[in-house]
Each structure stands twice: as C-alpha cells, then as structure tokens.
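Researcher: Quick test of sequence recovery. Tokens follow.
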C-alpha cells in the first residue's frame, strides 16, 4: 500500500484576521478531571450508603450483602 502524501500550498490571505482558540493548559484540565472524579466518588458513595441504610431498615439480607460487597471498594485504603 502506497503512503499517502499531503501537499499544502499557502496563499496570501487578504481578508479579516482570524483568531485561533487557545487550548486549556494541562494543569487546568487535570484539576478539572480530579475535581469531577472526587465529586462522582462522593456522590456514588453517599448513594450506596443510603441504599445500605434502606436495606438495613427493611431487613433485606440479600440486598445488604450485595451492597456491602460493592461498598468495600469505597472504604478500601
């Protein structure tokens, strides 16, 4: 299979100047991802805790065992 080549020709542009978008810095992207991860983690943990409490209140042992197994990954350190 032959390699594809791209040929670029540049022409002088006499129109209005275009503004290029600046990409966000790496640190800002990383910080945003970490904050979102932490928010999702705490929300999921609270939801799981609420479901565990409901299973305890209703006396559903199977549901409690299933949820407590999933909860272990949140308390593992």
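Model:
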């Amino acid at each position: 299979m032959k390699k594809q080549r791209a040929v670029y020709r540049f022409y002088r542009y006499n129109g209005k100047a275009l503004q290029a978008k600046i990409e966000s810095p790496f640190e800002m992207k990383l910080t945003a991802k970490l904050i979102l991860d932490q928010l999702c983690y705490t929300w999921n943990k609270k939801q799981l805790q609420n479901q565990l409490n409901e299973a305890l209140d209703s006396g559903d042992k199977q549901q409690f065992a299933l949820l407590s197994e999933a909860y272990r990954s949140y308390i593992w350190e």
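Residues 71 and 77 are 12 Å apart (CA to CA).
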